[in-house]
Amino acid sequence: MSFATTIIRWHAKYGRTGLPWQNKRDPYAIWVSEIMLQQTQVSTVKERYQLFMKRFPTVKSLANAQIDEVMALWSGLGYYSRARNLHRCAQTIMTEFSGEFPRNIDQLESLPGIGRSTAGAIAAFAYQAHTPILDANVKRVLSRFFGIAGDLQNQKTTKELWLKAQELLPKSAEKMPVYTQALMDFGATWCTPKQAKCMAEPSAQCPMMKSCFAYQSNRVYEIPAKKKKSASPSFQTQMFLVECGEFVLLERRPPKAIWGGLYSLLELPWEQLDVAPVKITLRNAPKLIKQTVLGEQQISINDGQIISVTACNPIDHIFSHRRLRIYPHILQLKKKWSLTPGNVMWVKKSHLGQIGLPQPIRLFLESSSR
Ligand code: SF4
User: Residues with Cβ < 8 Å from 126, sequence gap 6 or more?
Assistant: First the structure.
């Protein structure tokens, strides 16, 4: 029996069911789910996908939306460049493809945020195209099955895996959606990094066992080669929640920065974690505010007097490759500072739900307003 037939039969019995993005043929709905599922757990995506699709049911509605609203709906999902790319991509589809997703794989791949595997998934699900996928789970399945033990970051290994992925596709175009779904589900639930089903006790089971190189050579957990993990560097920063009555002062972060495009508190430049943070007082606060990362923006600090400075409990946040300890401070003002137009602005507390905020900042703002 071919690889494709085996995995399609496996899917009929063990594949995931009941996920809101399954069995769709609309390329827009498929695309949104594929982007959301990158780096985010299925359980989180399940709920957020439905909210997103309810607010933006079509590519046109997403293209016409304000980026702030898109970022707000993405809040908490992390990897915010995905949300910015979704918005840009929707606008490109409207302007360059008359609102229709291209069917051609090269055109799909040329769109913002769509890589080769995502383009393959959209084309296979929506158009039954013979286009393979090769996400991290599929790379693991194929490297084990064929005994491709090289480093998955290596271009030669990746090229070999793409060739294998292409060779394994079912002959019938009609089978492409179910085959693609089956391969995704198999990698996510059966041939997992640390609990491959073939190694499960008491009754090891996997329909691929007889032909799987890794299983037959007893190297399931050696393939693919493990990436050497480097320790995540740790940093610290001090942040300022500047409040005046109903308003808080927020900075919209530059697109390429961490939390790019989201609104956050003014912050001092990051430093190594082992440096003792400066104690913030009524006296030194105005000088420190001027040192926050504001680019060309001008804040007339002398316009309003700071009436209190309160140090709050530190917040530890883990990014994918670094750790950050935030020392937040609340600064109460008598009168709002005037601002030149730029990325820093006064935002009404009642509007905070409508803008994109990084998750730890949102939680801090919520707790400080109680
Ligand atoms: S036999 Fe084991 S390693 Fe091979 S495909 Fe099945 S679960 Fe994965």
Answer: 24, 25, 26, 27, 30, 101
The 10s digit of each residue's pLDDT in 197-224 is: 999 876 778 999 999 999 999 999 999 9
| Enclosing domain of residue 288 | 234-368
d(CA 276, CA 116) in angstroms, rounded, equals 46
For residue 80, the domain's CATH number is 1.10.340.30
Q: Which residues of 191-210 are buried (b: 16+ CB within 10 A; e: fewer)?
A: beeeebbbeeeeeeebbbee
User: Residue 11: what residue type?
Assistant: H
Q: Hey, which of 164, 220, 222 would you mutate to test ligand 1's pocket, going by the most ligand atoms within 8 Å of its Cβ?
A: 220
Does 195 share its domain with 240? no
Atom 1, ligand 1: residue with shortest CA distance? 209
Q: How many domains does the chain have?
A: 2
Q: What's 238's domain CATH number?
A: 3.90.79.10
* DSSP label at residue 303: G
User: Tens digits of per-residue pLDDT, 284-317?
Assistant: 888 888 888 665 667 887 766 899 999 999 999 9
What is the C-alpha separation between 319 and 259, in angstroms, rounded?
Answer: 10
Ligand 1 atom with least separation from CA of 196: 7
- DSSP letter for each residue of 23-43: T---HHHHHHHHHHHTTS-HH
Ligand 1: lining residues by beta carbon, under 6 Å: 141, 144-145, 190-191, 196-198, 206, 208-209, 212, 214-215, 220
The pTM for the full model equals 0.79
Average of per-residue pLDDT across 81-99: 94
